[in-house]
Structure formats: structure tokens, C-alpha cells
Design goal:
Layout: E1 5-15, E2 18-29, E3 31-36, H1 43-50, E4 58-63, H2 71-77, E5 78-81, H3 93-103, H4 108-121, H5 137-149, E6 155-159, H6 167-182, E7 186-191, H7 194-200, E8 203-208, E9 211-216, H8 218-223, E10 230-236, H9 239-247, E11 252-257, E12 263-268, H10 271-283, E13 288-293, H11 298-306
Parallel strand pairs: 3-7, 3-8, 5-6, 6-7
Antiparallel strand pairs: 1-2, 1-4, 8-9, 10-12, 10-13, 11-12
């Protein structure tokens, strides 16, 4: 039996004459997948489609084998945390999480037990009896995550889940996502903070203007962008001499010596030939201490693919 996936087949969604997403075809395996794009790019539309909150005008969606048009079954396996406040300010955090479980059909005692456990998982047990109105932005973010986690779903759908979190809580939340994904489940999250994605995700889906412009592992996506030179940072001795040797290679498009004269920024159109050139330079007696890719990150990918626009 194949591993469970979230599948989009030629999916389009319009809001009147406004495009939500257009001709989206995706297969999302278990693990952590980030939807990356500027505001208005279509990220939230994709998540709402996965959660069954809206339905496509064209195309077919399945979430681990279930159709979003079967809401009762889908709700049992999905947890959705939007970026918008949904809790009435007069209720406590515990009441808010418990109410969600009661509406899902759990008995009062079981709902209370699950709610408390979920609040503990997100570090909110000490604030469980405080009213949501007194919560900070980060605390409200965590209580929404507790609601999404409380019924132990197979799919977490999270809209900007790290907004407002302090660094320690952010690290703990990312660790929770990795723990969840390690159990063979799905974590699908959106972000427009590109630097976060490299730390969090197994896969990335870049979206702009309602269309998928790239998807896969960050490194794999980068290797497919042949028209843009790959950039590397080289730490070395005798940087000026190594720069001159690299400039003799046809595939090198840029060499910039660092101010400390102990490093180079190099751009190449042929990664394999670049590696061979560095090997020859090292064998000739020049010391190359390290070579690090400068553009295997989502920020660079997004700038390459859509010109850095918003």
C-alpha cells in the first residue's frame, strides 16, 4: 500500500472573477511541507481547500484518501489553525479547546482530558484558566494550535503558525512539528517569512498569483533553476590568486573577494565543473578551507523565481 498523500489534480478556485488558485496539481507526502508566497498568492486558498472549508470549481482533491466533500470524516483526521483569532474573549483557554472537542462529539470528561493534554503540549497549561482576552498574541497563537492538536489528527494545517512567538516558544513549536511529522503524519504550514522555511520544512511549495511555480526539496528545486548561476562562499588562503584561477573557467560568471581577503563569493553556471576546478586548485597546493552554497535557501529561490516581488 502506498504512503498516504494529499493530492490536488488540476484544481482551480475562483472568488467571482478573482483568481484563488489555478490548475494546481500536487502530491504532498507526509512530513512538513511549507507553502511559501507573498500575501494574496493563494496559500490560504490551498489550505481552505484541504480542510474542506471551500470546494474547487474544477479538479479533484483527496486528503490521505478522503475527499474534502466528506466533512465529517475529514474533520476527524485534520486539525486547522488559522492566523485569525476565533476564540470569544470571555472564555478561558481550557474552555475554548474543550468546546471544540465537545462539538466534535467527544464526551465531557474525554473532552476535558484531551483539552488539558493539548494545552500542555503547547506550553499553555499554566494559562489554561485565564481568559483568552488576557492572552498575548503569541499565547493566542498557541491556544489555536492546541485546538488543532486536541483530537490527535493525522493532518495539521497551519496558517502562519509562528507569528508572534518568542524565540524559545518558536523553537519548541518547531520541535513539536518535527515530532508530529516523524509519526508519519502531515504538517502543512504557510509562511511568508522565508528564512523560517529552511529550518522547519522537508519540502517547499512556492506559490505566486494562484499558481505553483516550484515544489520539492529546497536543494532539488534550486538545482532545476539552470538559467541562474549557483552561488558559493569559499573560505580560503590566498583568495586573490584563487579568484584569478577561477576566472579562467568559462562557467564562472562572478568572483568577488571578501574584505578580509580570506574568502570569495563565486557564481557558476556549471556546478560539476566548478567542483572539478576547485579540486584542481587544491591539488595545486592552494588551501581551500570550506565551500558553502550561498543560495540553497528559500529566500534565494523565491527571488530567482519571481524576482523577489510581493
Amino acid at each position: 500500500m502506498s504512503a498516504p498523500e494529499i493530492v490536488f489534480q488540476e484544481v482551480s478556485k475562483f472568488y467571482g472573477e478573482v483568481l484563488g488558485v489555478n490548475h494546481v496539481t500536487l502530491r504532498i507526502p507526509s512530513g512538513i511541507t511549507s507553502l511559501v508566497g507573498p500575501n494574496g498568492s493563494g496559500k490560504t486558498t490551498l489550505m481552505n481547500l484541504m480542510a474542506g472549508l471551500i470546494h474547487p470549481d474544477r479538479g479533484v482533491i483527496t486528503v490521505r484518501g478522503l475527499s474534502p466533500r466528506d466533512p465529517e470524516r475529514l474533520m476527524r483526521i485534520t486539525g486547522y489553525a488559522t492566523q485569525y483569532d476565533a476564540a470569544p474573549r470571555g472564555v478561558t483557554g481550557l474552555d475554548f479547546v474543550t468546546t471544540g472537542l465537545l462539538l466534535a462529539g467527544h464526551g465531557k470528561q474525554e473532552a476535558s482530558r484531551r483539552a488539558w493534554k493539548s494545552l500542555e503540549r503547547v506550553g499553555m497549561n499554566e494559562a489554561a484558566h485565564r481568559k483568552v482576552a488576557a492572552y498575548s498574541k503569541g499565547m493566542r497563537q498557541r491556544v489555536r494550535l492546541a485546538v488543532a492538536l486536541a483530537h490527535d489528527p493525522e493532518v495539521l494545517i497551519l496558517d502562519e503558525p509562528l507569528n508572534g512567538l518568542d524565540p524559545l516558544v518558536r523553537a519548541e513549536t518547531i520541535a513539536l512539528f518535527h515530532e508530529f511529522a516523524a509519526q508519519g503524519r502531515h504538517v502543512v504550514l504557510s509562511s511568508h517569512v522565508l528564512q523560517e522555511v529552511d529550518v522547519i520544512s522537508d519540502r517547499v511549495i512556492l506559490i505566486a498569483n494562484g499558481m505553483i511555480i516550484a515544489e520539492g526539496h529546497v536543494r532539488g528545486v534550486r538545482e532545476e533553476i539552470h538559467e541562474h548561476p549557483s552561488q558559493y562562499i569559499i573560505r580560503c588562503r590566498d583568495a586573490s590568486r584563487i579568484a584569478a584561477l577561477l576566472f579562467e573557467q568559462d562557467h564562472i560568471t562572478q568572483v568577488q573577494v571578501h574584505e578580509d581577503r580570506l574568502g570569495l563569493l563565486v557564481a557558476t553556471r556549471n556546478q560539476r565543473e566548478f567542483s572539478r576546478a576547485l579540486t584542481r586548485i587544491s591539488l595545486a597546493g592552494h588551501t581551500v578551507e570550506s565551500v558553502v552554497a550561498a543560495d540553497e535557501n528559500v529566500d534565494a529561490l523565491y527571488k530567482y523565481l519571481i524576482g523577489g516581488g510581493r
